[in-house]
């Protein structure tokens, strides 16, 4: 069995100086424990909480992580495709092992509205979810395409 960790990046704004150290301490513990993989989540618009960006965190973690898979979750609608591809390509080039790119469509309505991915009209999460459900019936989503 392989065991990895996905490190959370959400924190209380009062802990803004301790939050990065906490994430790095968890990564260090994962190194010492010999875990098989490490990923960092993606968060946007989580008031009143704050969050750390996943790309800079993984860049920093790559300094101590060795030849084991490492990666990031990307909430796909909230990233411009070219920027996301550039970030993933750069991190994958730096990584000494396979880079894990996890993607999610993020159907949480307030986040989508805050990012202006959908307009604030009748339940946006249901509308977006309905389109995705219809697409899934025709063909499975292929994140690697």
List keywords for this structure.
145 residues, alpha/beta, two-stranded antiparallel ribbon, globular
In short:
This protein has five helices and six strands. With 145 residues, the chain is of the alpha/beta class.
Describe this structure in words.
This protein is of the alpha/beta class and 145 residues long. The protein has two domains: 4-104; 106-145, no CATH class. Helix content is 41%, strand content 17%. It has five helices and six strands. It has helices at residues 18-33, 54-61, 81-94, 109-114, 124-138; strands spanning 4-7, 10-11, 37-40, 50-51, 70-75, 99-104. It has a four-stranded parallel sheet with strand order 1-3-5-6, covered by helices on one side. It has a two-stranded antiparallel ribbon with strand order 2-4. Helix 3 (81-94) links the parallel strand 5 and strand 6 (99-104). The relative contact order is 0.13. The model is unreliable at 115-145 (pLDDT under 50).
Topology (SSEs and partners):
Layout: E1 4-7, E2 10-11, H1 18-33, E3 37-40, E4 50-51, H2 54-61, E5 70-75, H3 81-94, E6 99-104, H4 109-114, H5 124-138
Parallel strand pairs: 1-3, 3-5, 5-6
Antiparallel strand pairs: 2-4
Contiguous uncertain segments of 5+ residues: 115-145
The number of helical elements comes to 5
Task: Give me the secondary-structure category.
Answer: alpha/beta
Question: How many strands in all?
Answer: 6
Helices and strands, in order, run as EEHEEHEHEHH
Distance between the termini: 29 Å
Summed up, the domain count is 2
Characterize the largest beta sheet: strand count, sense, and whether it forms a barrel: 4 strands, parallel
Share of helix, binned: 40-55%
Strand order of the largest sheet: 1-3-5-6
């Amino acid at each position: 069995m392989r065991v990895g960790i996905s490190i959370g990046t959400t924190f209380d704004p009062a802990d803004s100086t301790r939050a990065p150290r906490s994430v790095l301490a968890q990564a260090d513990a994962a190194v010492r424990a010999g875990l098989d993989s490490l990923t960092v989540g993606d968060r946007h618009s989580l008031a009143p909480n704050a969050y750390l960006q996943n790309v800079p965190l993984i860049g920093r973690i790559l300094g101590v992580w060795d030849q084991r898979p490492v990666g990031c979750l990307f909430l796909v609608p909230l990233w411009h495709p070219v920027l996301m591809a550039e970030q993933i390509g750069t991190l994958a080039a730096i990584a000494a092992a396979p880079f894990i790119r996890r993607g999610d469509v993020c159907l949480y309505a307030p986040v989508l509205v805050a990012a202006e991915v959908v307009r604030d009209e009748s339940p946006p999460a249901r509308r977006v979810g309905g389109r995705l459900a219809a697409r899934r019936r025709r063909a499975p989503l292929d994140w690697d395409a």
